[in-house]
Write a structure and sequence with these properties.
Elements lengths: L1 H10 L33 E4 L4 H12 L10 E7 L3 H16 L8 H4 L2 E10 L18 H8 L4 H6 L1 E4 L15 E10 L5 E3 L2 E4 L5 E9 L1
Antiparallel strand pairs: 1-2, 2-8, 3-5, 4-7, 5-8, 6-7
Bound molecules: zinc ion.
């Protein structure tokens, strides 16, 4: 599974430039008046259509990372996160800081800051009423949009810390409003500086240690 992820993240840099491994010609266009996908300065999401190669890989990662006891889940939508250049730069700067720290003893720390794939379980409200999800909404209760907009520096995370899991079925936040889809955010994570690691869960001290790459909506 990890080899698949490494291959995917090399092709999809999780930045604002859409360099997708999928065949875009297979994706039906929902908007004829304005091609929002090309407006990467404001569009933080690019929805991957059913059958797209990269969506199939993400679904495979999602399912293969589920714990054995978890109930089967039906994937509704998959969104690629378009991160602005400054967000990516902050992530890379954090990686360099960790790599240069003499206190870090993990052998992979000197290679890449011990970057790992982690899941953040939450919910998303705006997708319930939107045919097309491309921009961040302004709903106070839409957790995915508030997480992406704040760079994971939310009120909830200030209190509880940023908890991530290697298991895609672990819910970091409790499920709140009924009118929301369960969501998991796949994050590239610099794990060298984690505060603690218990079982499948880690607590990340710094929001810039995360780079959100995909949002999977399911029920
Ligand atoms: Zn939203």
């Amino acid at each position: 599974m990890n080899a698949i992820w490494i291959s995917l993240k090399e092709n999809i840099k999780c930045s604002s430039k859409i360099k997708d491994v999928a065949h875009k010609a297979t994706v039906p266009k929902r908007s004829s008046s304005f091609d929002e996908d090309n407006d990467t300065t404001t569009n933080r999401f690019h929805e991957l259509g059913k059958g797209e190669a990269s969506r199939n890989v993400i679904e495979m990662i999602f399912r293969s990372s589920s714990s054995a006891k978890a109930k089967p889940r039906k994937i509704k939508r998959v969104l690629k996160v378009n991160n602005p250049a400054d967000v990516v730069a902050n992530f890379e700067n954090y990686r360099r800081q960790v790599m240069m720290s003499s206190k870090q003893q993990h052998p992979r720390t000197v290679v890449d800051g011990n970057e790992v794939l982690q899941f953040y379980g939450t919910t998303m409200s705006c997708c319930c009423s939107r045919l097309r999800v491309s921009r961040l909404c302004s709903l106070a209760g839409c957790r995915v949009c508030r997480l992406i907009a704040s760079g994971f520096d939310t009120y909830y995370n200030k209190i509880h810390g940023i908890r991530l899991s290697t298991k895609s079925n672990a819910m970091t936040e409790e499920v709140g409003a009924a009118a929301a889809h369960k969501a998991v955010i796949i994050c590239r994570t610099i794990a060298a500086g984690v505060e603690y690691s218990v079982g499948d869960t880690i607590l990340v001290p710094n929001p810039t240690a995360l780079l959100p790459c995909f949002v999977i909506l399911f029920h």
